[in-house]
Amino acid sequence: MAGKPTLGEIAQADQGILMSKAYTHMLMENPDSVLKQRGRDMRLYDELLRNDQVKPCFQQRRLAVTQSERDVEPASESSEDKAAAEFIKEQLQNHRFDDITDKMLFGVF
After folding, report:
1. Close Cβ partners of 36 (under 8 Å, ≥ 6 residues apart)
2. N or C: which terminus of the chain carries fewer CB neighbours within 10 A?
3. Which residues, at least 6 apart from 18, have a Cβ–Cβ distance to it below 8 Å?
C-alpha cells in the first residue's frame, strides 16, 4: 500500500497568465529574417513598395489573382446542390470577394 500523497502546490494557479504571456510574446516577435538582418521593423516593407520595380510587379501579381475568372458549379444536378451553388455565387458577389482577396494579398506588406 502506498503512503499518503504529498499535499502541496504542484502547479501555479495563475489562470493561464504565464501561458498567455508566452503565446502573445511569440505573436509579437516577428520571425522575418530580412527584418532581423537589417535591424528594422515592418516599415521596411512600406519603403520596398515605393521601389519603382517592386511596386508594379506586386500590383501585377495582385491583379492577376483578383481579375481571374471563377465559377461555382453545383456538385450534382440535384436542386439542393444547384441552390447551394447559387447561394455561394451570390455571397461572393455581395461581399466584394475581389476587394477582400486583394486586401488579403496586400496583407503580407
Report:
1. 30
2. N
3. 12
Q: How far apart are CA 52 and CA 41, in angstroms?
A: 21
Q: Could you tell me if 74 and 10 are in contact, meaning their C-beta atoms sit under 8 angstroms apart?
A: no
Average pLDDT for consecutive 10-residue bins of the chain (109 residues)?
67 63 66 75 81 92 88 94 94 86 76
- Is residue 45 within 8 A of residue 51, CB to CB? The reply is no
Nearest to 86 by CA among 98, 75, 73, 77: 73
Residue with cell 511569440: 26
CA atoms within 13 A on the CB side of 68: 10
Answer yes or no: pTM beyond 0.85.
Answer: no
Nearest-10 crossing angle of helices 54-66, 97-106 = 150
CB 106 within 8 A of CB 48: no
